[in-house]
Design goal:
The structure holds 3 protein chains of 3 kinds. A two-stranded antiparallel ribbon of chain A has the order 1-4. Chain A has a two-stranded antiparallel ribbon with strand order 2-3. By secondary structure, chain A is mainly alpha-helical. Chain A is built from 11 helices and 4 strands; from the N terminus they run H-H-H-H-E-E-E-H-H-H-H-E-H-H-H. Chain B contains 14 helices and 3 strands. By secondary structure, chain C is an alpha/beta fold. Chain C has 2 domains: 169 residues, Rossmann fold, CATH 3.40.50.300; 80 residues, no CATH class. In chain C, helix 4 packs across helix 6, helix 4 runs parallel beside helix 7 and helix 6 packs across helix 7. The longest helix of chain C has 20 residues. Classes of the chains: A mainly alpha, B mainly alpha, C alpha/beta.
Chain lengths: 291, 355, 259
């Protein structure tokens, strides 16, 4: 394999990270919390898609839609039951609660579906196109395409709709948003719904590339996507997109040119270097304390 | 006048809390040790004692860093890992030269502390320049990096000396040689020399270290830097070295805990000290109360034992653990619920009778 | 301090300026303060007074100009080093260590003068005991000066407003400064409290033999205790002189009352 094919598969992996990172960054931007259970929503999405495809024999589009619906509902329910009562609590308490939710989802999945790995069916036609000497599989193209569509749709939503404007207002200044008559609780619910829906899309793309489904499936992509979100500047939507893509490319390059075993270490080392140069991530806003 | 009475109560409460923490440890030790000697403790329960002391020591350290210094550190397991593999390796190397188990254990723990301190210094410089959630993610990242590095270390010795390789195992030992660290397989064939008594002494020493630091200019500086960074600097308190001190003490206690932990098992894989372990220790700290060492000790004891008490529920135990965790966070942090709960508290019932 | 330095300026500022992005907040600011002098810095809201304080203590790095303190150029010094050198301050929006006790807040001020190491503290060596005992004694003395002895063990955040302002000054003095910067010390005080504060500022100057520079909107206080006043407007020095000179300066009256 050459440079170009590594780059493309890096962009493909990065697209999945970017979609997950969008969920992290939106929730952080508006609810100011690190939602560590986000990765486990991906896992639930993967199981739903798996059963829809294998047991109910649904085609890929309806299966993905079903997964999106389930994850969206799940996201909203989690927010209502676990996070909403803690709206005024310290961020550390919310973090621990999110970890509790993560344990709950992982162990719930283990009880219901057992810890044994399920093999995700092949959903996309195998085959590839040739581009500049590198062969690129359909799956890779679809993944990158979906990511671009998601990003474009989200940007339109945030910038062109009333709800989007309210979301921007909440992330800027929650107090002022309330005074302007924005229902902040409603906006937070919408944010969780969108983030979780995106997690479902990511889960299908992830499982199409790495076809095994198990209860702790979401943990590592979750941490990586969180890293991607911080990398790009947490709270920034273009930042999550950029961070996700870069992280994917760095990971694939590290695997290809340095060492498979050390790829994770390299990814995290790059994150640290970036934060040392730009302490709020690539596109993050600098916040100065007024003295 | 009323105010000064209140304030002296406040001071006494703090002092009492410290005494209580020592008493809890000593009484728990006396009870458990005598139960163990008389054979009244199940083997499963006995096997949890040393890990429990390790987690307490690591959590006391982390509470200094997270609770008192106010830095969200998500990498404590990394320092435990450094301490564990250093301790296990040193103990393996000294198996013949220092035949006395207790002496070797002490040497191993000290080398675990030193190794964790070295890594703490290297990591602390970049970490402590950041703030808030960014600091948190960088400690997480360093935890992951440490795990990756340790997973790739191959280290052994034979009659020809020490052999070391990284990523790929290129060490070929002569007959009679011994691998101390074997990549992802970690350490195997370790002499189990840790014991409950050493663990308890380590807890008591950790408490003394943390409490004495709190009573000094360092403790005041740590809290001042947390409460108001700019005022602290303007008062002549250097932020970086102050935060470094709490980060280092936390790392050292993590290293000590790791060494004790590693020498309690004949095999130890690097994957043991992953992100989940860091989170586990953080949970002990938060549930016990930020800055409250007594609370940390109690929370650790309860949470280490809870899954075992729930063993009859089998598969459901971790699910119940998760629900308990969420419920405790909501019950202790939600203002509405707090007000409603306080109506049923002992204090308010007594007050009502008086009124 | 020998008689030579006594007549020299403790603080000498020249051409001081700072830009935030493209905006010049303070430009070409100059002033000097003599030993044991009480000086005032006044000006309309937003004139850049607190920004000057932030530059003098290096909370902000000045873009231009020199700050010479006790004959030493402070160009590359940090906030902590400025404190070590002898500049202490209070803040407009009180910045106490809110969860520490009143006594511990003052003890923090002695941080630089304590020489024992963390290891001394862990092993409670005689050196630790001796120095802590000394710090405790000196801190309680300071609390007595500021009428806070009864609240020594109270958490700082629970002090009433006036007490918090006094505690901030006590903490600043604990760093044994040669120059004390007070940012609106009388803000939120009633006339009686302001009167007490004026006396206290004079007492502090005499007892600790230091220079004081204060920002204040209460003209009665400023004119009552300042020996020299600098007026700042739109980030530039508008006038400098004795209270009488300032009061009769038409430029100053115009800046305050508008056209």
């Amino acid at each position: 394999m050459g440079f170009l094919s590594y780059l493309v598969s890096g962009l493909s992996l990065g697209s999945v990270y970017a979609i997950i990172a969008l969920g992290y960054t939106m929730v952080y931007g508006i609810a100011k919390m690190l939602n560590f259970a986000h990765g486990d929503v991906i896992m639930i999405g993967a199981y739903v898609a798996f059963f829809a495809l294998s047991n109910f024999g649904l085609p890929i589009i309806p299966a993905t839609l079903l997964s999106i619906v389930v994850c969206t509902l799940l996201g909203v329910i989690i927010e209502r039951l676990a996070y909403k009562p803690l709206r005024d609590a310290s961020s550390l308490s919310v973090l621990i609660t999110a970890i509790g939710v993560s344990y709950f989802l992982q162990n719930g999945a283990q009880i219901i579906w057992s810890s044994s790995t399920k093999v995700f069916p092949a959903i996309f036609q195998s085959g590839s196109v040739s581009l500049g000497g590198a062969s690129i599989s359909y799956l890779t193209l679809i993944t990158i395409g979906v990511c671009l569509i998601v990003m474009a749709a989200l940007t339109l939503f945030i910038n062109k709709t009333r709800t989007g404007a309210a979301m921007r207002a909440c992330s800027e200044d929650k107090g002022a948003a309330i005074l302007m008559g924005i229902n902040v609780n409603h906006i937070i619910s919408v944010t969780f719904a969108i983030g979780s829906g995106l997690a479902a899309i990511a889960s299908v793309l992830l499982c199409a590339a790495y076809p095994s489904v198990y209860p702790t499936l979401g943990a590592m992509p979750g941490i990586k996507a969180f890293t991607a979100a911080v990398f790009g500047g947490i709270g920034s939507i273009p930042g999550a997109f950029l961070g996700g893509l870069l992280l994917g490319v760095i990971e694939i390059f590290a695997k290809a040119y340095v060492s498979t075993q050390l790829s994770d270490a390299i990814v995290f080392a790059v994150l640290i270097v970036v934060l040392l140069i730009k302490p709020t991530g690539l596109l993050g806003k600098k916040i100065d304390e007024k003295v | 006048m009323a105010k000064s009475i209140f304030s002296s109560l406040f001071q006494n409460a703090q002092k009492r809390n410290r005494t209580v923490s020592f008493l809890i440890v000593i009484i728990a030790y006396a009870v458990l040790e005598s139960m163990m000697r008389s054979g009244n403790l199940s083997s499963l329960f006995t096997s949890l004692l040393v890990p429990m002391t390790c987690y307490i020591v690591a959590a006391i350290g982390l509470n200094l860093n997270v609770g008192i210094s106010g830095e969200l550190n998500l990498g404590q397991a990394g320092f435990m890992s450094v301490g564990a593999f250093t301790g296990v390796s040193i103990s393996g190397l000294l198996a013949n030269t220092v035949p006395n188990d207790t002496v070797r254990l002490i040497i191993a723990i000290i080398s675990g502390i030193v190794a964790a301190a070295i890594f703490g210094l290297i990591i602390g410089v970049p970490v402590l320049k950041l703030q808030g959630d960014y600091l948190a993610i960088v400690t997480l990242a360093f935890g992951q990096i440490l795990k990756s590095i340790i997973t790739n270390i191959y280290f052994g010795f034979d009659s020809a000396g020490l052999h070391f390789s990284f990523v790929e195992n290129k060490t070929s030992l002569l007959p009679g040689g011994k691998m101390l660290m074997n990549g992802p397989m970690g350490a195997t064939g370790t002499n189990k020399i840790s014991n409950f008594t050493t663990g308890v002494i380590l807890i008591l020493l950790s408490l003394i270290v943390v409490y004495n630091l709190m009573d000094s200019k360092s403790g005041r500086a740590i809290m001042a830097a947390r409460d108001n960074r700019i005022a602290a600097e303007s008062t002549g308190i250097p932020i970086l070295s102050t935060k470094m001190l709490s980060f280092l003490v936390s790392a050292c206690l993590g290293g000590a805990a790791g060494a004790l932990y590693g020498l309690n098992y004949s095999t130890l894989v690097p994957a043991k000290f992953d992100f989940n372990t860091s989170i586990l220790i953080l949970v002990y700290v938060v549930l016990g109360g930020l800055g409250n060492m007594t609370g940390t000790i109690i929370a650790t004891i309860v949470l280490v034992l809870l899954p075992e008490f729930l063993r009859s529920m089998q598969d459901y135990r971790m699910l119940i653990y998760a629900i308990v965790l969420i419920l405790i966070m909501i019950l202790t942090n939600n203002e509405d619920l707090k007000v409603r709960m306080s109506r049923f508290s002992l204090k308010s019932i007594l007050m009502r009778k008086k009124g | 301090m020998d008689s030579n330095t006594r007549n020299e300026a403790v603080l000498k500022v020249d051409g001081l300026g700072i830009d935030f992005g493209g905006l010049t907040a303070v430009n070409n600011f100059a002033m000097s303060i003599k030993h044991k002098e009480i000086a005032g810095l006044i000006g309309p809201n937003g004139a850049g007074k607190t920004t000057v304080f932030n530059m003098l203590t290096k909370v902000y790095k000045p873009s231009r100009g020199t700050i010479v303190f006790c004959g030493q150029d402070t160009a590359n010094l940090s906030i902590v080093e400025m404190s070590k050198l002898g500049i202490a301050r209070t803040f407009q929006n009180i910045r106490l260590f809110s969860k520490l006790s009143v006594l511990d807040n003052v003890k923090c001020g002695f941080h630089q003068s304590i020489t024992y190491s963390p290891l001394d503290a862990i092993f409670k060596t005689p050196r630790y005991r001796r120095e802590e005992h000394e710090v405790d004694r000196k801190s309680r003395e300071l609390l007595k000066v500021f009428n806070l002895s009864n609240e020594a063990d109270v958490v700082a955040a629970s002090l009433p407003y006036g007490g918090q302002r006094r505690l901030e000054i006590a903490r600043a003095l604990a760093t044994s400064p040669r120059l004390l910067l007070l940012d609106e010390p009388a803000a939120g005080m009633n006339p009686q409290e302001t009167e007490d504060l004026m006396n206290m500022i004079r007492t502090v100057r005499d007892k600790f033999e230091i220079s004081i520079l204060l920002i204040e909107h209460d003209m009665k206080l400023v004119m009552g205790i300042c020996e020299r006043i600098t007026v700042l407007n739109y980030g530039m020095t508008l006038a400098e002189g004795t209270p009488e000179e300032i009061q009769s300066n038409p430029e100053v009256v115009k800046a305050y009352l508008g056209e």
